[in-house]
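The instructor's notes for this session suggest beginning with a concrete chain rather than abstract definitions. Hand out the sequence below and ask the class to guess, before any prediction is shown, which regions might be ordered.
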Amino acid sequence: MLDRQTFQNKDLVLKISPNYDPKRFDPNKYEAFLDALCENREYQKEAIRETLRYFLGGEYKSLMDLVEENYHKNPKLQEKYSSIDDFVTHLQLPDKLSCSLEHATATGKSYVMYGIARLMLAEGAVDQVLVLCPSNTIETGLTEKFRTLSADKTLKELLPADSKIINPRIINASNTIQKGDICIENIHATYINTKSAIEDSLVGEGERTLILNDEAHHLMSPSDTALKKWKEFLLDTKYGFRFIVNLSGTCYIGDDYFTDVIHRFSLRDSIESKFVKSIRYVAEDSSGNEDEKFQKIYENHIENKKIKYRKVKPITILVTKNIAACKRVTDKLITFLAKQEKISKEKAAEKVLIVTSANEHKNNIPILRRVDDKDNPVEWIASVSMLSEGWDVKNVFQIVPHEERAFNSKLLIAQVLGRGLRIPEVYKGDQPVVTVFNHDKWSGSIKHLVDEVLEIEKRIHSYPVNKKENYNFDLYQIDYEKVIGENKEYPKEDEFELLKKGYITFSSQDAIVPEETEYETVITGFREKREYYIARNMHPVKNVANDIFNRLYIFDQDAGTNYSEIWTKKRIEQVIQQSLKEIKDKTSFISEENRLKALRAFGVIKRKSSIFPRIVPKSNEPYKISTTKVKKNSIGIGSLRRDGTIFFDDNSLILGEAEDIKLLKELDEDESLPKSAIIKVANRYNFKTHLNIILAAYEPERKFIKGLIKEENSRIIDAWFKSPDIGFYKIDYSWRKGEHPKQGSFNPDFFIKILNDILVVEIKDDKAYEGISGDENRKKLEYSRKHFNRLNELQQEHKYYFKFLSPMSYDLFFKKLKEKTYRDFKSELEARLEG
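After discussion, reveal the predicted structure:
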């Protein structure tokens, strides 16, 4: 069995039946209108025809009808969804005549929207149309486009003479919506506290209203509270909307493709048709830090500006995960440009425009309309990944996703790429290239997006189910908070240990270092290498010696020590010069990496004091948590080929979600899996857990579970379960890593109920007492014991016993369990952690 399922987006498109009732609807009478509206753009005509046949052909009463028809005919849909019921759970608006159209950026989806609206009105299927979009900028653009098209006399004349509404009025929601109107409005106008005519005009009129949702990925993946209300509006029963079309160039919810797409003209189609720029992305790169990356981006920008695209003013955009990150990268970019171009920060700031939804950046949105102008100084734009504003900048020739979270799903990748795809008028007929300076580990994600490949790792899930035997029980819990504790002294072991040999071990260095980046062009797969000459930050030895001396002097003043008297500026400078001599360097400059090594070498001997946070209970009133509240947990099928294991019984094959039951049966029959991957508990009465299956991540967990399901041990136990790693029962702890205080939390692995006793077990390997991990585990043990001792004092219903176990103590633990002397049992791991 394959660990991953692979689909192409085209396999998931819902096919509209070619059948239609000619007594109800004659699509042929609109062909002249479509030719005039769409000209030679056949994909636009197809999208309009498909939508009208879906709405008016008489074959479908809702999306559910279309889904059922396609599910039974399409093997790929059956492979992706285990049942029709499973498919239905992924639908957004199943009870409406709703659908989605995917038309990539710059392919003219506004023409499709207008064509559907105009013909639904002409046919008399609806009395009015409401076009919703996520921002004022998009509303303004659509309004201008629709008014231009409505003023076209040819379009009006080509509609059949018997059309019910021939010339619709284009308005916004500040006007009362009347029969024959196309109202274009920002979604925020639909909310109760906003003054608009929508509620007054459309209550009870949903059956006779067509809804067109532009940029519908915001509807499906709302990024803020306001956008979450969009779907609520569509489902509001006081309107009773029926006809709904969602349009987007990025039909993704995260990495998942929309489930109701009936027509698509994809990014790949658009690139191959040369409607948009081609895309070149980083396949391999060795940038070591942000400054090196900025230098490469800057060289690309200058090459675009002076060589490749001189006819326009090329723009580079940097995309971040959120507003705070966008502000930070903007400041860094301005500082870099000022240094690189030897200009003031004020002059550099004129070249950078920050675009976010924050109020402080609101005035920058209108400037986007003018950044393509040559007399506009903006050459760099910083923005957030999920920007709801319209974007019509054509001169973007480089895109820089600045962090992983700005680029970590197909939706975000498609959104980001869309910013740079439009072609400037002077390059129409050619196909310019936009460069994406991505981290090379995302190159596969870009390729998959353009190749329209959807890869899904198969996963099986563990969660509570209703068994005949009741294995649920309650646990008591207390929440904690962090407070600042007392000061303590933490000495270091050696005094300037690194300086005993008279020099610091520097690495070889150079002021200019050649670095190579390899780019790949989408679709063709063509690869090319580009060499950059990267300037490293070099520091004069004298400056570094002064910096170290000043740090020692300040420490002396605070701590009453005399390091700055022993280590004078001259002596420090001599050590650094000797260190350079050791690597055959005669420049009297040191690189940033070697400067940091020098600073570390002169670290202070001891900190006089340190503030150490303590963790204390928020309340002395414990509260109950039911095991029925355990959240769904999962394991990838690929993990089963390594060290993962599924434990199951007969109940697992009949209780649970259909998709998991189907997958479990397939796994049970898969002879290619290791024997340890899937273990069936022969007697279900020995599988005393309320979960459908139990998942073990590695061998120590697997061995412990095998002990729990042995009949001689199971007789003693009332119920047990394996807790998920996060989100159910958390224990906070605090520990020290070197000189630095750390706070953490963990979820114990197992809870075992024996009468009124609750055994809480954390599983580790046999070497968990060693090194830094041992220091951390020591504190986990200490804080866990304190926590459960406190619970035992505050309530009488249960008695809790916390155990740290590793495989070397399993046999003795289960012996003590059968002898009912487990309460005082101490494992070898616990003894070593305490020793």
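Then share the key points. The radius of gyration is 33 Å. The first strand starts at residue 4 and ends at 8.
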